[in-house]
């Protein structure tokens, strides 16, 4: 996964989930209705990758200003940071149900604003609205499902929310592909998100509030009536007693550590166990984002165009593969995370990510080095005043190739007979683009024709395969296990904020980095970040597989060290 939490569930729990929901369909109705929030979360974070290609065609200022493209993409992430914070307050004050309804309203308003946007600033405004909805949905949907599910199948039901997020991202690529030939293209792509928001809003109106929230508000009878719909009659009283014990413990924790952020932060930093837990939890969240995953999820078609596939439709079709692999990887993680452990899965994942990023860097470097040369006659005689101004004033124009042309903010009109042969370097105008295409030649403005392009797509796919089962899902599992019970919500929240902020930094700088360092240098930079992340994971993150929370706490109390750096105990020395 890219964002959001994952609750682990084994095959036994999924089997029990199927049996329970078959007997009590109301439970699945609750989970799927709330889970639409996860679907919207995934859709709205993924859809912009394809829509951006067509927004650039409609607004020349967006096409020419890299920072404007980055702002359009990243404003949803910025909105999500504030949406998560606001959602946390709203969840506690007004309940989970109202929070989901407000998130739906934000999703719908954002989708309509973007679909009708007459200018880029309106798209940005719509992305902020959508981001607020994403932030609220990212925490409220799994919380509602968790609190409205029987304990024995809770992990399986909450896991469906994670699958719906990656499923939403995959759906966004399908929708993008479906509307490539429709009038309005990007307006439909962005506007479609309003439909599921309306569906969820209507469904949630007929569903109850979370029984846990009602119980905390002393609405015991209302909580009981909901539990009666979820549990068999002979289990309702036991669940009420368990709910009472859980709520009482939660209130006691709040009194012990304080109910405001400053008090909790002081308590956390003053507690060695929590502090070491935060080292691990924050490390894996920062490493997840600086692996560059959201450059792929937000800019995948653009990266494919960097590799030399000029067609928007082709770029989106190839990007669909990476999104599908991400969804499959989430399922694979559930099968292996309890068998091989969290730490090992992340370390193996990081080695794979680093290898793929280094190879991608080499591929893009080779593509740039072997880009088609510029045909001087074709460039200067294509049309009146058509030649790229920088090419005309260059001291050594004979050394120019397609990549030199694109770096000068000009367009490359490929050779009509063979696009790998020398072509024309022309000024970046819509008229010249149309003229080039009118001569049955391909217009390149983001990447150059390259025989290495297919390798970039292959290794983008391998990157996702190695990322998704490990660094995609495991950081969220680690954060659900690494903190003492009374600090679990606070610790997970702090780590999630680091995740969102790093997500914002990466999405807001990717295109600028590619301009400054080139695609090759940018992927190599992310590989360097991953090496640092790997070292930190090795040093700070313990294995929590199969350990009780108390055992994790005891391990952190004495201070975790990697096995290679621990002093051998007498029992270790005596063992063969």
How would you sum up this structure in a few lines?
The chain is an all-alpha fold. It has helices spanning 11-23, 25-46, 48-58, 60-64, 66-94, 96-115, 120-147, 154-178, 186-191, 194-205, 211-216, 220-230, 236-257, 261-269, 272-290, 293-306, 312-340, 342-369, 376-381, 389-393, 402-407, 430-438, 453-472, 474-481, 488-540, 549-557, 570-574; strands at 411-413, 424-426, 443-444.
The CATH class of the largest domain is identified as: Mainly Alpha
CATH superfamily of the largest domain: MFS general substrate transporter like domains
Fraction of residues in H or I helices: over 70%
**What characterizes the major β-sheet?**
3 strands, antiparallel
Give the C-alpha Rg.
26 Å
Shape: globular
Total of helices: 27
Distance between the termini: 41 Å
CATH fold-type name of the largest domain = Growth Hormone, Chain: A
Give, in spatial order, the strands making up the sheet with the most strands.
Answer: 2-1-3
Keywords: Membrane, Transmembrane, Transmembrane helix, Transport
Subcellular location: Membrane
Transmembrane segments: 30-55, 67-86, 98-117, 123-145, 157-179, 185-207, 315-337, 343-365, 452-470, 490-511, 523-541
GO molecular function, one term: transferase activity
Architecture overview:
This protein has helices at 11-23, 25-46, 48-58, 60-64, 66-94, 96-115, 120-147, 154-178, 186-191, 194-205, 211-216, 220-230, 236-257, 261-269, 272-290, 293-306, 312-340, 342-369, 376-381, 389-393, 402-407, 430-438, 453-472, 474-481, 488-540, 549-557, 570-574, and strands spanning 411-413, 424-426, 443-444. The protein is globular, with a radius of gyration of 26 Å. The protein has a three-stranded antiparallel sheet. By secondary structure, the protein is mainly α. It has three domains: 1-207, MFS general substrate transporter like domains (Growth Hormone, Chain: A), CATH 1.20.1250.20; 258-364 and 451-576, Growth Hormone, Chain: A, CATH 1.20.1250; 371-444, no CATH class.
